[in-house]
Records
---
Amino acid sequence: MGLEAALWRAVAFYRGASLVYAAALIVKNFGEYAHPLGGWAVLAVMVVWTLCATYAFSDARRRGWPLLAADLAVAAGCLLATAWVETPANIADGRPTLPVSWVAAAVLAWAVAGGKRTGVTAALLLGGVSVLVHLAAGTPGTAGPATFNGIVLLFLAGLVVGHVVKLALDAEARLARAVELEAATRERERLARRIHDSVLQVLALVQRRGQEAGGEAAELGRLAGEQEAALRALIGAAGEAGVPGRDSGGGNAQGAGAGDGHAEDADADLRPLLNGHASPAVTVSTPATPVRLPVPAAREVGAAVAAALDNVRRHCPGGTRAWVLLEDDGAGDVIVSVRDDGPGMPRGRLAEAAAAGRLGVAQSIQGRIRDLGGTVSIVSAPGQGTEIEMTVPAGPREW
């Protein structure tokens, strides 16, 4: 995971920075050591292990307990070597151990790998080694505040870092799950729009024409109506359960051809796409200059407009007129409005339709524009027609 890799990089940085500090103290004090060559030997071990540990911990496959145990053993050995390299008098005076804060890198590694319990365990082990330094040097009574302050700092480092790492990894996992669920929901909504634009509309048409024709066609229409209701219920149940839908490749029946022949990251002029809806009953008004959107956005806007006009044809009396207006407000937004002079809708009608699984507005229009980062405004009243205003950003988006 990305966060875990960043944590291990932070441990590697701390290991290197604390090595520089320990090396500076060894260079400064080696003339006062009981065994100066021993000080250089300990420094050499620290340098070699810093390089080896940095490389080893960089790969998640090697971050097992053997490596962690070796890291702690090297840190404990360098710490214990202080009793041999330093003079008892310097140890009694409270001079820092040879590796000083470098040993805390092993505690941090245990905390990152296993959480606060393992971090605290490593800190207690190294704290015990710090006490052994005084015992081995023959100065047990001089293990005063400085020694215990170091042990407490190791303990706090293992506890706090381990706890924070656990919280951070849990938060990253929850975020990944939320992103996955959002992607699944968006995919399901796209599938629902495709189904509404194709299968459900065909089934509704067969039902209506079958009832009009009568006879055997009426039975066919009845079966089509049952299948339409079952499919709507299935889509609704998938939405409540958060089941992702997968588009099997059947394109959108309305507006799927927008931008054909263009790369997905190219722009398309929205005017020709909307002008294709012009008819004796539909008046389309567009600016004299191109109104450009990314090709995927143009396709979705075109499909939303097609769905709005299809609702006019399906739910309004014959002879109802519709007007499509395209505007570029010059401030980064493209506005498309679809207005009709039909009977309008009573208050609450859209909510009832969405609850019944009728997705013409909820998904084919509002869902598409919402996925583009835009907004939809619907104004309707009985006897006053309906106006749907769709506003989408003209800037590029990730697809």
Note: The two ends are 23 Å apart (CA to CA).
---
Amino acid sequence: MQIQSNFSLRHFNTFGLESVASFFAEVSSVEELTEILVDPVWRQSSKFILGGGSNVLFTQNVDALVIHPAIKGIDKINEDEHSIRLKVGAGESWHDFVMHCVEHNYGGVENLSLIPGTVGAAPMQNIGAYGVEIKDVVESVEAVSISEGRKRIFSNAECEFGYRESIFKKALKNQYVVTGVTFVLNKKPVINIGYGDVQKTLAEMNVSEPTIKDVSQAVIAIRRSKLPDPAQIGNAGSFFKNPEIPLEQYNSLKNAFPDMPGYPVSETMIKVPAGWLIEQAGWKGYRQGAIGVHEKQALVLVNYGGGNGNDIRELASTIQGSVEVKYGIRLTPEVNFV
């Protein structure tokens, strides 16, 4: 294991923003991770855990030891007639893992195809798309405490999953490094095509009885049509969460803005698409120099090349204020600012 100094993180974040880490270490096993965490030389040093960098906005250099978990492996624990349990290394590409499951007809994650990032970062954010969240398939999360180097297994319940939230973003933020995730997947998949875009795309594909591979291909087609490829245009996918507001507030807004979409999340709460709010506030396709709002999806802030993280943060803040003035709704970023 090599520890490098003054290390550029530009290729370790999907915005493609320049940031320099004081020190950088890539760890390929739990043992290597533990070794560096308990090492007397590094034990008292500030540490920053960086996975695929698909949910981070660098606004400055990182004066810390940046640890990049590159722990690989997709291992079968056990299976029966109905399900299979897989333990997956934190450093595996999320999309590659989904493709592995689709190839083997393991159902449960096909709706999460083409989401960027690593398996280790997925439970921290409780990633979700098209009616599925990772909490639906996670059995447990293996993690190592940063302060002591001790391994702990978190059950699904202990992860305290919420909408784009988990205990790793709240009570235990910056206290653990996820090293592996155990999934329970369905060998007799139940197809989830409740979202209209998925149904529409499957119809365009002339698929009437979809398999999980069909659903995966439909989701990939939708995401490619709406979202820019980070390899081409720097971005972190959805920049803001879809806000959930009280039913009474939604009904009042609906009277003023009849076209406002909303989706019930409970008897008293309605989820409103953040992209719709941003677009209606006039931001879709906005550009200021090297940064802007994507022309096809207002929920995505972009770096066209040479952009600055602080400029993106300021743009996000301006959008928040604009939406709040018009609708009385304060948008919350999904992306973590550093």
Note: The two ends are 25 Å apart (CA to CA).
